[in-house]
């Protein structure tokens, strides 16, 4: 029996375990990336391990999230990250150089390599044939120190593409169709692997759009083959020597297959407030649009921008629409400036933002009250834009640009004549905004610079014999990390200050949560299905840890957040019978009377509700290593003990 492309990547990097779906496997990591919203904490964790130099083939620290400097906090964090990068052997991508995933695809991604990043959209690298996965900052810190990265061996889903995209139908519509079919829960425990003749019709940036937004499926990652299209992209980047072929064997067996005829797709949109609420643009109808934002790590490539510029050329944005455009990297922005496309955007009335994440993470460009915003981004969770009552629709660059002109949600196929835009044979390459690390000898004299906003990592204790605490919060299904620990311009600058962040924890669900939690001193959170979907931000575990949360009991967890809870030393437990969720009320006094012994023995966990007198059984999906991490009180304690 042959192997799939994803299985080949896993097999070639396997350190421990076997490739049976559901079992834990340990992987050797070749590359890591961080961004500044999660990077400060990741490097604080790396420093806490006491390792002098990173042990990966390549590690890059990007500044792309907290680039709005309204106080000293972001600048201090950037200075800290730059000093750590210089001392510890990490390349530093300066503010303005671009979004981590776009730049990494252009300049560093290599087919056949493994990559983990402290950002959930790291699977973008799968578009170039990498095994690229989002992870918590502590997992990335451990990997930088040469440690193994552990995942549950996923099932492999084959999305077989046939045909060719019609004019004005985009790669964004492909992933929206996959989300429509699979939902935001459908990829949990799976790798999505793209095959079929239709793959050859997609450029590397188009493939990267698909793998990027595959994160919204809850998937471990998504993978495209590395073929002649990949080789041509790398050659155009001056990196042809980095190419290596990767494809599934002819007799590879998949756990599931989905067929998509590219020629049958139409322009789509994900409606508020979830990426899988997908309908065609024509089904939704010509709703009035107040704002259009084009960019993000999903759709900010040169090809995307050239298409937008071509649609806007010689026209003017509707007077009722605010249009902003953020090219994904310095390379993209430079090339737009040189070929005149940037002028076409500006002349049409677009507001050009710096090459950064910007509005995607609520860092500026919040819509008006109750406004409708079309965005080429990957997430439209409630309140993520910075405007609580805004309606956010996720669309392709083509839909966004045309709708900005008409003032209503519009199907770009109405434009008629197709765009004729080809991938350049050569990209402009200038890596002067990437600072190499100091040599080993020079590094001895490099001082790591801490700012006053940088606070220590929360301390944890070993798992006690029993836990008794109130159910301090009960929430429903599909709670995202944006619910648990919001982003946005007012909060992101404090990502290195857990005590300050704590006052915003679960603010979207219950503004009284932080104070109630502090008053109790400890607590247990009750959640529904797919708890913790969305961003990889480990702050959604670290802040509850700081507030005294000892366990989270749910119907089911999203992969990365579950791993982050374990890393923080918080117990992730599931109801054996999902109906038991309905029996427990907020403020009930709960007890896990034998938690330590039951975890050690592998037995189901006993939950007593002392308020009602009822008893329940809880389950968990933990490897022996993860049990040891929880017993030690978290991954940092466990790693210190191991070292």
Shape: globular
- β-strand amount: 15-25%
Secondary structure: number of strands: 27
Q: Uncertain runs with pLDDT below 50, 5 residues or more?
A: none
Termini Cα gap? 40 Å
Question: Can you summarize the main beta sheet?
Answer: 7 strands, mixed, barrel
- Structural class call reads alpha/beta
Can you tell me about this structure?
- It is a single chain.
- The chain is 30% helix and 19% strand.
- The chain has 643 residues and is an alpha/beta fold.
- The longest helix is centred in the N-terminal third of the chain and has 17 residues.
Keywords:
alpha/beta, 22 helices, 643 residues, 27 strands
Summed up:
The protein has 643 residues and is of the alpha/beta class. The chain is built from 22 helices and 27 strands.
Map the helices and strands.
Elements: H1 5-12, E1 14-16, E2 24-27, E3 31-35, H2 36-49, E4 58-62, H3 72-88, E5 91-93, H4 100-107, E6 114-117, E7 131-134, H5 137-144, E8 149-152, E9 155-162, H6 171-182, E10 190-195, H7 204-213, E11 221-223, H8 228-236, E12 256-261, E13 268-270, E14 278-280, H9 281-284, E15 291-294, H10 302-312, E16 322-325, H11 330-339, H12 341-348, E17 351-352, E18 372-375, E19 391-394, H13 397-406, E20 434-435, H14 440-443, E21 467-474, H15 481-484, H16 498-501, H17 513-520, E22 523-526, H18 539-546, E23 549-554, H19 559-568, E24 571-575, E25 589-592, H20 595-601, E26 605-609, E27 614-619, H21 624-632, H22 635-642
Parallel strand pairs: 3-4, 3-6, 4-5, 6-7, 9-10, 9-12, 10-11, 15-16, 15-18, 16-17, 18-19, 21-22, 22-23, 23-24
Antiparallel strand pairs: 1-2, 2-8, 5-20, 13-14, 21-25, 24-27, 25-26, 26-27
């Amino acid at each position: 029996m042959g192997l799939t492309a994803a299985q080949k990547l896993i097999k070639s990097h396997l350190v421990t375990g076997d490739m049976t779906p559901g079992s834990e496997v340990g992987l050797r990591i070749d590359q890591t990336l961080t961004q500044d919203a999660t990077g400060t904490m990741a490097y604080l964790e790396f420093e806490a391990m006491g390792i002098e130099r990173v042990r990966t083939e390549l590690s890059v620290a990007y500044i792309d999230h907290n680039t709005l400097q309204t106080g000293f906090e972001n600048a201090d964090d950037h200075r800290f990250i730059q000093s750590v990068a210089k001392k510890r052997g990490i390349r530093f991508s300066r503010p303005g150089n671009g979004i981590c995933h776009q730049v990494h695809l252009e300049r560093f991604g290599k087919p056949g390599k493994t990559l983990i990043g402290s950002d959930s959209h790291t699977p973008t690298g799968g578009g170039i044939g990498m095994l690229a996965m989002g992870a918590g900052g502590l997992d990335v810190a451990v990997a930088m120190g040469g440690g193994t990265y552990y995942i549950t061996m996923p099932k492999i889903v084959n999305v077989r593409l046939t045909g060719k995209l019609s004019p004005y139908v985009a790669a964004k519509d492909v992933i929206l169709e996959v989300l429509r079919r699979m939902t935001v829960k459908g990829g949990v425990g799976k790798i999505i692997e793209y095959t079929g003749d239709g793959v050859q019709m997609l450029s590397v940036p188009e493939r990267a759009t698909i793998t990027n937004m595959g994160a919204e499926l809850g998937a471990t990652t998504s993978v495209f083959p590395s073929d002649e299209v990949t080789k041509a992209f790398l050659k155009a980047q001056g990196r042809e020597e980095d190419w290596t072929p990767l494809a599934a064997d002819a007799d590879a067996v998949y756990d599931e297959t989905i067929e998509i005829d590219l020629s049958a797709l139409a322009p789509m949109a994900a409606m508020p407030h979830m990426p899988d609420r997908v309908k065609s643009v024509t089904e939704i109808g010509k709703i009035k649009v107040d704002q259009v934002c084009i960019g993000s790590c999903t759709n900010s490539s040169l090809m995307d921008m050239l298409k937008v510029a071509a649609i806007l050329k010689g026209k003017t944005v509707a007077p009722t629409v605010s249009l902003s455009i953020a090219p994904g990297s310095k390379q993209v922005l430079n090339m737009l400036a040189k070929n005149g496309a940037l002028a076409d955007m500006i002349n049409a009335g677009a507001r050009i933002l710096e090459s950064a994440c910007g509005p995607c993470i609520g860092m500026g460009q919040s819509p008006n009250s109750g406004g409708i915003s079309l965005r080429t981004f990957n997430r439209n969770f409630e309140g993520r834009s910075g405007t609580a009552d805004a309606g956010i629709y996720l669309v392709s660059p083509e839909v966004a640009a045309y709708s900005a002109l008409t003032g209503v949600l519009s199907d770009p196929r109405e434009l008629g004549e197709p765009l004729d835009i080809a991938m350049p044979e050569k990209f402009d390459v200038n890596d002067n905004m990437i600072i190499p690390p100091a040599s080993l000898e020079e590094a001895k004299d490099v001082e790591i610079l801490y700012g006053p906003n940088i606070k220590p990592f929360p301390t944890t204790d070993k798992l006690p014999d029993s836990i008794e605490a109130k159910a301090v919060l009960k929430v429903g299904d599909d709670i995202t990390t944006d619910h648990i620990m919001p982003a946005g311009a007012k909060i992101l600058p404090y990502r290195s200050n857990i005590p300050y962040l704590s006052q915003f924890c679960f603010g979207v669900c219950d503004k009284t949560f932080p104070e109630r939690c502090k008053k109790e001193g400890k607590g247990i959170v009750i959640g529904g299905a797919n708890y913790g979907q969305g961003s990889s931000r480990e702050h959604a575990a670290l802040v509850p840890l700081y507030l005294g949360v000892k366990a989270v009991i749910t119907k089911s967890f999203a992969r990365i957040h579950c791993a982050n809870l374990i890393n923080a030393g918080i117990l992730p437990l599931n109801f054996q019978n999902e109906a038991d969720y309905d029996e427990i009320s907020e403020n009930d006094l709960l007890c896990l009377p034998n938690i330590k012994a039951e975890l050690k023995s592998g037995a189901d966990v006993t939950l007593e509700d002392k308020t009602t007198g009822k008893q329940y059984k809880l389950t968990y999906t933990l490897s022996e290593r993860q049990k040891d991490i929880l017993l030690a009180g978290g991954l940092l304690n466990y790693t210190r003990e191991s070292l």
